[in-house]
Amino acid sequence: MFVARSKTRSGGTPTTFLSPGQVLAQRYRIIKPLGRGGMASVYLAEDIVLQETEVAIKLLSDVSDAMPECRSRFIQEVKLTRKIQHENVVRTFEYGQDGELCFYSMEYLPGAPLSEIMAGGEVDFSTILSIATQLMRGVVAIQGVGVIHRDIKPSNIIVSDDGLVTITDFGIARGESSTLTRNPSQVMGTIAYMAPEILSGGRASRAVDFYALGVVLYELLTGYQPFDEESPARLILKKVEQDPPSINAFRSDLPQWLTQGVMGLLAREPEDRMRSVRDLAKALESCGCFEKTQSLSRQLEDAVANSDVPGQSRFPWSRSGHRGGKQWLVSSLLTTVFAMLTVPLSTTEVSDRLEGAVLDEMFQWRGNPALSTDVMIVAIDEQSYTSLGVPLTAPWPRELHAKLLATLADAGAKLAVFDVLFSDGEFSSGEDLELSMSMRRMPTVLGAALAMSHKATMQGSFLLEEMIRPAPVFDQSAVSIGTVGLPMHRDRVRSFMTERSDVFPDVPSLAQAVVTALGNRDERPGNQDLINFYGPSGTIPTISYETLLRNRERLPVGLFKDKVVFIGLGLRSSTGPSQRDAFVTPYGGGVFGAELHATATANILNREWIRAVPPLTHGLVLFIAAAAIIGCLITLPGLLAIISLAGLISAILTTQFVLFLECLYVPVTTGIVWGCFAGCVLKIVAGTPHAVYVRRRS
To answer: Is pTM beyond 0.70 here?
Structure first.
């Protein structure tokens, strides 16, 4: 591949430039450059594998071995940004190399940098509020995964034509434990947007991003930066030693809460800045700039509680002095409430992992009952592509589907189920008619899918559900349709979802649609019921598409007689979703989508599923478990408390498993975590008055 190189201003480091038409890593065809910085260049590219054009490629400009630090920062940028999934933060897809070139692909953001919008003239007040709210959402999302951006500025903020604001460029972002300065002579970032504590050699905390946000809002509201100095040395000195001029000196028409909020973000002390962040968020919510359902105040409070800024994680009572009598009782009650309210929020990740691990173990101990023999799979694997002459990235020919249905009809199959989306609006009438007639001969269930679309409002963007349904010519020929997806959690299928959406309650899961088509009117699982998935891939009998069409005379007689046959992609490839007739993306965990839906159908036919207790009962069980553990810890001394606690937890888990054998699942892990946390805290608090009394007597 031809790569143009040039010298940088210093004349020492080679820099890479790509020309339109060049192909990177045999996948990305460069369309045009989008921007270039000191460390990397960004290009608009076409993904020739997925056939999608709106992909941005960030290419490390330095291609020599003389700058390993740049390469390390580049890889770190990919690792950090992949953690963040939020509409106001740019999405990163994958890292790659082409020879000595390092790059990663990310979301292409059509629009203009905020710096260009600001240069174009005054921005109206409502737009500023929209930008402010979206930026605060983005910053909270970034910090919610333990990342500090450290370079928020107008040129790193993209505003789309419909008003969506996106934070980009994580080139100097770090985890919370790192500092901004690499060495005394090197400072990373843009001085105008850097917090005073960084310029004076301090530690980077969450507060530095909110300082940069304050500078951006100050510029938007006044048209000026807080400190107007051309000399970097004088600018740093002013920022460290002086407060910026009040916004009121430029604009007297702004509401007081906004002026105070922005000036609070520019406070020199990180503690004062973080307190102002909370006040500004509450003020924005009260004036309707935030939607109440987003609970930004709660997200922000969580971020502040876990912040590395001193003085931001204090308890609501005094830490000084001894407490006794009423003070001790009040402290104990507050500690209990604090534990019961904060532990579910702060340990969600831990509780989910433990609950999932316990559930997996119970399924293992319970064993794997035999699956229904009425279900089979025809998988479109790589051999099928090769043998049937279909290009890997091409749409699967509909005439092959028609031949397959005819073969199944001749073999006496009961029902065919397509784990495939027939949603394209452009059809070949001959192929469509043939496939449609085959569906009428062989009763067929088709797949639909839920998609999420962004809709912009003055206050930001929200998601709307859209249903991708089969094309009318196929929908009319099918006996039923169902959503081709099951709820996944940590690469596990946890529950059925009979009504996947409040917007589309009439479209059930694919497994439910199959059972309906079979005329089964017995009791069926609900949304809270768990799928009993049995074993790894291949548990359900599977035959390749190519084998069935080419070697059907060699298959056992009656193999498909009265069977429900699922047809889906058995190939682990990212090419499926880009095809015109899109196959469902294969699931993780060693299985593919058609096998999960076939397993779910087999569970329903065998009446093998686990029922979860209702939410009210679940909450009561958690409270009882937590109360029992708390009582054990605070009433028993030392070693006896530990032994009793181990026995109590074992008894709770044993009871859970006994109920599980009776097909009833009762989650208890969160209750155990609550109880242990609150019990330990109360054990410490309850011991304080006694210790003080003993010291006074002695």
So the answer is: no
